[in-house]
Amino acid sequence: MLSVLVVDDSMIMRRNIKKYLSSLGHNIIGEAKNADEALEFCSENRPDLITMDISMPGINGIAALKKIKEINKDFSIIMITSYGKNEMIKSALKEGAQGYILKPVSVEKLSESIQKIFPEYLEKKDRVL
Fold this sequence. Notes:
This protein is an alpha/beta fold. The chain is built from six helices and five strands, in the order βαβαβαβαβαα. Strands 2-1-3-4-5 form a five-stranded parallel β-sheet, with helices on both faces.
């Protein structure tokens, strides 16, 4: 089970992502509606995974990603975006995101992205089942 921080300015999107992650067996240890809340959370906690919206008011997800990586370069982050713009995705990956998901988010997309980052965890989980 991974401990996860969900960052998105949309309450509905946070709720859906948390529901999908919980259905995959993961533990939601926090949620943030903006980059400032995410940075504060990451300063005090160590989630295994962070899902982060790219487009948020104030500090956007890519700028937040940079700051979170300054706190701990080993945080695993999946960016979530409704924009298929290559420059934004490339920038997020260059700054240290381990993956991205295009909206609409689904349990299948989350599972696939998590498998790419944590293959050893999923192999262990599969053996237990």
